[in-house]
Amino acid sequence: MLLQTPVDYRTALRRLDALAAAGVEGNTVLETEFRTLIAALDIYEGKLGLLPIPNLPTSLAEMIELKRQQMRLKQKELAELLEVPAGRLSQILSGKRRVTLDLAKRLYERLGIPSDFILKNA
Question: For the segment 38-55, what is each residue's pLDDT rounded down to a tens digit?
Fold first, then answer.
């Protein structure tokens, strides 16, 4: 099976969803179709150059690093934005230093990191 257009892609996704909802286990014909659809979708997405969805950050340091990359900032520029010395930011990112309340406020205000994430992971 070869997907060539966005319409083909959407149709294949709908069929894949239908097969998944119906359950294909134990039915060799449906299992084969399911695997064929997955392979075709994978090839089509590969041609589009889609990147895999990254894992969500599980620590505050990972979240800060993700935001830094999204904003296309160097670590020194991020330190300036957050008004902390570059060395202190480096220690926070490596887990050697904890975040202060003032820095937590700036992470929320300037990077848009959700406050509940900061509280749970600080």
Answer: 999 888 888 887 666 667
Q: Count CB neighbours of 45 within 10 A.
A: 14
Is 50:71 a contact under the CB 8 Å cutoff? no
**Alpha carbons 6 and 14: distance in angstroms, whole number:** 12
CA distance linking residue 92 with residue 122, whole number of Å: 10
pTM over 0.70: no
Note the pLDDT tens digit of each residue in 77-111.
999 999 999 999 999 999 999 999 999 999 999 99
d(C-alpha 98, C-alpha 95), whole Å: 7
What's the number of CA atoms in the CB half-sphere (13 Å) around residue 66?
A: 13
Question: Which uninterrupted H or E stretch holds 3?
Answer: none
Report yes or no: 77 and 110 within 8 Å, Cβ to Cβ: no
